[in-house]
Amino acid sequence: MKIDEYIDLVCKEIKNKRVRSSVSRELYDHLNELKEDYINQGMDPIEAEIKSVRDMGDPKDTGRRLNSIHRRKPEWRLLIISLTIIILGAIFSHMTFPNRSVYSTITNAVVSILVYIIFYFLDYTFLLKYKSEALIAVILIIMMPFIFQLYQRSIWFVLVIILPIIALFKNSDENNTKNSHKESKYIERENNTHSKGIFDEMYNGWARTILLNFPQDSRLWGIVAVIVLISVLNWNIGFSSVQNVYLYAFAFIVFLITIQFKSSSRITPIILYYVFILSYTFFFDEKGMLTPICFIIASTLTYMLYRKWIDLNKKIGLPLIWIPFLVLSYFLIRDYLLDPTGLGSWTKSAYGLNISGEQIKLIIQGAQFIGKGFYQFNFDYLAKEHFIITYIIGHYGLLSGILVIELFLLLIIFLVVNTFKSKHEFGKVISFACTATICVEIVAYILSNLGFFSFPPGFLPFFTGNNISTVLNSICFGLILSIRSNRNIVDEEKIFLKTM
Amino acid sequence: MQQEKDISMLILSLLRSGDLYGYEMMEKLELLSNQYFKLKAGTLYPILHSMEDEGFIESYEKKADNGRMRKYYRITKQGDKALREKKSEWKSYVDMITRILGEQVYEN
């Protein structure tokens, strides 16, 4: 038997086609080295090839064993806890919000599960394969607060205006460097010192995607998905809403990670991070509100720095990354000290919340272990949305509140452990970004509900929230689960080579 | 099955002294065991891939001298911990067997 025949027989037993290439590369390398050794010992090449293949053992058995390792392996703990939260959230929201129709509650739960399942089965490496589409999506999302301040709710206007602008940057040089980088992304990142300007690269990618590949390619579906996603997100709430801060943070991180494949500049992510934070600080009056966003981005950048995604000395990189967070924390603490009983003027003025920081503290202090507390407060719809844990503690007692908090803390622990178990570089960073977004969202929500600080009026994933929050959390959960269950299937290295 | 566990332990031990690729591992194993562990490569790779799945080792690709990309393996912290535990289990097992055999020899 020849080397190629042996490898074909092994690969035939491996059901997942994506695994075959990495397995065959490894076996091919082994067989060739063995063959060369036999030739060096004096065997003729044909005999050496036959002997080296014989030394490998039964190809079918090897293939079957490799197949049993390289298949989708769901992370049951995470799957069960996240589905429990979605279902409990739906039941709970039905009980707590009597005004909300059953139809709306069920729709929300179904949308959550659907988006979750789609991203779970989609295989997270689509972010690499369709990084131009991903860039368009996240850039649109990041720009939403600015655009929607001028043209409320006109999502179609945005698409009509932005797509031609992108088209203006059409680069006629179609046979560009796409196939010239044959080296591994990791190796290239270590060695590469030359780079095109980041914006050249970006526009190049967009223009190529939209103007040339759009009509013929399956990428059409990428663009359709982006439009559908944005329309779904815009379902019942304007993008200028401060409630979407977590969406902006997540979109920005995906933007940074995706852009890393288009640029090898050492500090591009840090520069973009500063541009992002400064422009948002300019847009939002309440600077302290951006602290959680900044924390999500800074922690992900730190992780990227440690995983060598950002090629910068840690002694310079760490202060650069964390200075904006410290500055924003100063605003958060200052706002709190100026008015410890308030919730930040954004909640009062923008949403007309009928609850104050002082009332939250009274509810918590007057709570009983089980049953209604001593301080009764009439929560309106919005107050319930943003302070559901305070409501639970005041209405059902401390025990119920602790149980809900514990459920979410358990989720955080599982998510963090899961992130550090990730196997592939790209998967690790995406998993970290999703985990950071969900965890900060939960922690900020719990802290503000217990009367600490006044974080942006967020939502408790799947318990309360609008469509944006539901879809964002479902995407994050879906991606995390997809990364985990595909750990033995995806071949990131091959995708890096293809997409370079 | 038990033999595979033993081989996993030996692989972890080999990787403690440096990163290796599959073929190199087999050669070292044969050499150190005086040809006792003559593994078939078809057995080695499923073991390596399953150890990677369990988090004991991790792999990365690097360009070899012949210009081809080669897959190397390195031990993880989890693998290092597992190796230490295995070593101590192995030591207790050997001590116990030696003690029993020693007593029997004395009785006879």
Q: Kindly, what is the distance between the CA atoms of the first and last residues of chain A, rounded to a whole number of angstroms?
A: 36 Å
Spatial order of the strands in the main sheet of chain B? 1-3-2
Unreliable sequence segments of chain B: none
Number of helices of chain B: 4
Which terms would index this structure?
heterodimer, A: 500 residues, mainly alpha, 71% helix, elongated, B: 108 residues, alpha+beta, 3-stranded antiparallel β-sheet
Structural topology:
The complex is a heterodimer of chains A (500) and B (108).
Chain A: H1 3-13, H2 17-40, H3 45-55, H4 59-69, H5 76-96, H6 102-122, H7 126-129, H8 131-150, H9 155-168, H10 185-191, H11 198-216, H12 219-233, H13 245-259, H14 268-283, H15 291-306, H16 314-338, H17 345-351, H18 357-365, H19 381-386, H20 388-396, H21 398-421, H22 425-449, H23 467-485, H24 492-499
Helix pairs in contact in A: 1-2, 1-4, 2-3, 5-6, 5-21, 6-23, 8-11, 8-12, 8-13, 9-11, 13-14, 13-15, 13-22, 14-16, 15-16, 15-22, 20-21, 21-22, 22-23
Chain B: H1 2-16, E1 20-21, H2 22-32, H3 41-54, E2 57-63, E3 69-75, H4 77-107
Antiparallel strand pairs in B: 1-3, 2-3
Helix pairs in contact in B: 1-4
Description:
The complex is a heterodimer of chains A (500) and B (108). Chain A has 24 helices and no strands. Chain A is mainly α. Chain B starts with a helix and ends with a helix. With 108 residues, chain B is α+β, with helices and mostly antiparallel strands. Chain B is elongated and about 60 Å long. A three-stranded antiparallel β-sheet of chain B has the order 1-3-2. In chain B, α1 (2-16) packs across α4 (77-107). Chain B has helices at residues 2-16, 22-32, 41-54, 77-107, and strands at 20-21, 57-63, 69-75. The model of chain B has no long low-confidence stretch (mean pLDDT 86). The chains are: A mainly alpha (500), B alpha+beta (108).
